[in-house]
Amino acid sequence: MTAGEMDKIQILMCSVKLIILMVMFSHSTMEQSRHKVVSRPLVMGPYQRWTLLPCYFFFDHKVAPESICLTWWRNESGHRRIIYAFENGQRQKQREDPDYSNRTELYRNISEGSATLKLQILRLQDAGLYVCEVWSQRHSDVDRASVSLTVAARPSRQGVISMNATFLSFESCGWLPEPSPFWTDERDRNVTEVTETSITPGEDGLYCVKSVLHRNTSKRAHNLHLCYTNPDTGEKQTDIYQYIATNSDAYHINYGIVLGLCCGILGILVVIVVIMKLPHQKPNEESPYVKPRSGSCRSYNGNSWRNL
Q1: pTM score
Q2: What is the pLDDT of residues 228-263, one digit of tens each?
Q3: Cα dihedral across residues 21, 24, 26, 29: positive or negative
Q4: Are 120 and 103 in contact (CB under 8 A)?
């Protein structure tokens, strides 16, 4: 073999080595950026119903669905609490916390690039930070995203305004977070200075609100404005409860005054009747009930007085 042929063989071998190095470098770069997991940072769910914890992922190269692995977990006092696990193409219930195992499921097919989790029968204790992790069996590197869940509640029956002679009151329980009530009059003027409001937590952890308006009976309409967080949208919302006085309400409110006036008039009539029925004495008649006076009496004959 000539020297020229040896040079050609060496050049060929160097070229092959360079190609192998380029392939290895390209494969290494693909491994470093093989997938990404994204989510929405804040989610609000309705108490005792269900909500979605969003999580999406994509790979830079094709991955078979049965090779995809994912885990949902939450950190409670330093303890990693697994609420959903998927590996080897199937759910791994034996790894999941029993408090969540029967309340969680994937919302969409994992082959669509979604790891979104459906959490049902929400409890107040479910509020907190959740972590979604995704990886493939071929590559052990894990990418993750987190979701912060808050729980909100609104009673199915939100309450009504009740009336008394001197005040209006509103009472309702089953709120989370705390609602904020205030009153206005018929001209939409704030009348908070004549109201008393208390908001207290119940045994179930939900709030009860009671608000009393010491009303001015000259005002025929009052509105209660109740500001709260809508559990379905997570947005602030204000409901207005309106009270409009009717004629029957006016009678109910003033019946004490009317009754007092009627009793007074009736008393006066009774006194007048009694006085009219008493016997009247004529001017020249001697009353048998008048004691005779001692001493002389005098009469006047037109010119002078004389003793009788």
Answers
A1: 0.68
A2: 999 999 999 999 999 887 755 544 444 445 556 666
A3: negative
A4: yes
